[in-house]
Amino acid sequence: MQKHFDVIILGAGTAGLAALSEVRKRTDNFLVVNAGPYGTTCARVGCMPSKLLIEAANAYHRRLTFDAFGIRGSEALSVDFPAVMERLRALRDNFVAGTVKLTDTLGERSIAGHARLLGPDTVEVNGERLSARAIILATGSHPFVPPAWKAFGERILTTDTLFEQRQIGPRLGVVGLGPVGAELAQALARLDVQVSAFAKSASIAGLADPDTLAVLHSALESEMQLHLGHDVVLEADPDGIAIVSGNTRTVVDQVLAAVGRRPNVADLGLETLGVPLDEHGMPAFHPGSSQVGDLRVFIAGDVNRDRPLLHEAADEGHIAGMNALADEVRCFERRSSLAIVFTEPQVAMVGASARELAGQDVEVGSVSFANQGRARAGQRNAGRIVLYADRADGTLLGAELCAPAGEHLAHLLGLAHSRGLSVHDLLAMPIYHPVLEEGLRTALRDVSRKLPGRPASDLAHCAPLGAPALE
């Protein structure tokens, strides 16, 4: 007889495991099917190994400030790259083990194999037909490599292969300067790899505000060669791989392809669901419920191309898991948009972007960190914050920043945005001295002065004392 389950989850990544945590609260009759490596993209080849590389890079790069602090001898320091990568893999494997342990405990309720949909309630796995009341699609994504580049074989790196290398370069081309490309290009440059970075777009890491983008551009340009705004073509060269971009031709030893990811939907059978598919072969779904049409089919995580971030994938998995067996599918309010890029200075976007707010009655405030006291004390006084507020009532609508410790400033702004707080509400909070948050306060004061109506509700809005920290 054909086996029947309450829920079949396709994919054991972040979204699939989050869905599983909800499903197993409601039933023991479930099945997890995973086609690729276990351990989640984040732990294996994404968030965690990249941050391990960035931490090593930033630790070594810090030596360049030592003389300013009166610390001598930094010129004697060097990078043992194989040791850097050995530590990275050891800690990475520990993170992976934690997620693999969960699926290992499932026994027969977890199987490895490629699943293909035969309809909205039937799946074929390893030649066996299985049916389910609900199916959750959480098959994830993979790095995209242009077909022509594959002729260069192992000299083309992706995040799937980068962290397995013992040595890089010495000349590395990074193509693509979205969040992943920008992070890894800077980290490798700081580890003494000769990096040349290329992007078709003039933007870096998703920044839209030109003055904020200029801060990041300046920081990266001081550490690597940047070539922006042109298509990129790879050519064979006797001395390596030639990267042609506009009038520039650069020869490198390896190329890191950071030109995006694609959903893992090859031969998944989405056409059998009986719903329209878009030009990418994907079905429409409701982002608040994860439901595909009115089917008992739910889609979560990178595979849906909607919000390819771990915390969003986890939320989508929980939503899908709760709705899979619910009598009535519910819509959940999504969190405020938050994206962080771990370059230095760090980049973050909170809430609505300038593009999304175009045409609305918005007031803008900003601050430069060039003269910010705490940032100057730490030799990291490069940065900028720009805030967008509703001109009618001062509600914080969005923010974009490239600033030291931007990840923490972004979370503060994310909380404010999610609670619908105004610029005036934020100015009422206590801010210690000397901290980087004083820079944020300056940006808040800048926008508050431009807003009509009541003044900012902080005591320091009395007559300025002539000191930047108090204005």
Summed up:
By secondary structure, the protein is an alpha/beta fold.
How would you characterize this protein structure?
With 471 residues, this protein is an alpha/beta fold. Helices cover 28% and strands 24% of the residues. The strands form 5 sheets. Strands 1, 2, 3, 4, 5, 6 and 17 form a 7-stranded mixed β-sheet that branches. The chain has a 5-stranded parallel β-sheet with strand order 8-15-9-10-11. The protein has a 5-stranded antiparallel β-sheet with strand order 18-19-22-21-20, with helices on both faces. Strand 21 and strand 22 form a beta hairpin. The radius of gyration is 25 Å and the shape is globular.
Q: Residue ranges: pLDDT <50 for 5 or more in a row?
A: none
Strand proportion, as a percent range, falls in: 15-25%
Reported for the largest beta sheet, the result is: 7 strands, mixed
Name the shape in a single word.
globular
Average pLDDT figure: 95
Radius of gyration, rounded? 25 Å
Fraction in helix: 25-40%
- Measured distance between first and last alpha carbons: 75 Å
Which structural class matches the secondary elements?
Answer: alpha/beta
How many helix segments?
12
What's the total number of strands? 22
